[in-house]
Amino acid sequence: NAGVTQTPKFRVLKTGQSMTLLCAQDMNHEYMYWYRQDPGMGLRLIHYSVGEGTTAKGEVPDGYNVSRLKKQNFLLGLESAAPSQTSVYFCASSPAGQGAYEQYFGPGTRLTVT
Amino acid sequence: SQQGEEDPQALSIQEGENATMNCSYKTSINNLQWYRQNSGRGLVHLILIRSNEREKHSGRLRVTLDTSKKSSSLLITASRAADTASYFCATGPPRSGAGSYQLTFGKGTKLSVIP
User: Fold this and answer.
1) Residue B2 near residue B103, CB atoms below 8 Å
2) Phi, psi of A84, deg, nearest 5
3) Looking at the complex, does the CB of residue A24 fall below 8 Å from at least one CB of chain B?
4) Ranges under pLDDT 70 in chain A
């Protein structure tokens, strides 16, 4: 099992450009999440999904869009990149249910917006 | 906004010593989890403790939870150089709340274990 994979690993964008980050998981998890990690800030939730075709906003959703067309994939889009979106982006997944479950993280995508 | 706050922000110890990190949080929780992040990598789950539990062990890890003080501690015994990493606590809200599957992460403790 590959677990959670993310592509690309690194990317440099110019202000105003767009891009899509891809997250894939092979654990048949219902829930998927996108976080950003900035120095000294810990992880902040951008968007999440509780199942195929459903998405919801997290703590810092502005400037991002997401889609979950297939259960195993969760896409994060930046329509018009801004320097404030320079960050490391992590995708995670977890099983469904109201119980307490650990989250499984991908290796991250380091994005720089100039 | 961050729910958990780790203390200290950074900790440096000699190999073989014990390392203790603390986490404080503000609102009711269903569970509290600890994660490790090696430099340049994703987070790895270490241990989960539920709100009705007081202590949990996993190998060299010991986690305590005091819901009356809204705090948790992570103890790593007999530390090794490979334990050098950042450690994050994450809280899960009460089951009845909306988004009860979401975790809120603290800012982390950076642990350095000197060989």
Assistant:
1) no
2) -65, -10
3) no
4) 97-100
Residue A71 in contact with residue A28, Cβ under 8 Å? yes
Please, which residues have CB within 8 angstroms of residue A36's CB and are 6 or more apart in sequence?
A43, A44, A46, A60, A87, A88, A89, A90
Strand A87-94, strand A31-38: pairing: antiparallel
Quick check: B45 and A43 CB within 8 A?
no
Q: Alpha-carbon distance B80 to B9, whole Å? A: 19
Mean local confidence (pLDDT), B100-113? 89
Give the count of beta carbons closer than 10 Å to the beta carbon of residue B22. Answer: 16
Q: Which of B4-8, B49-53, B90-94 has the highest mean pLDDT?
A: B49-53
pLDDT band at B20, cuts 50/70/90?
A: very high
A94 touches chain B (CB under 8 A): yes
Residues B34-44: tens digit of each pLDDT: 999 999 899 99
A-chain CB neighbours of B95 within 8 Å are 98-99
CA pair distance A56, B84, nearest whole angstrom: 35
Helix (H) or strand (E) holding B7: strand B5-7
Q: Do A56 and B99 count as a contact with CB atoms less than 8 A apart?
A: yes
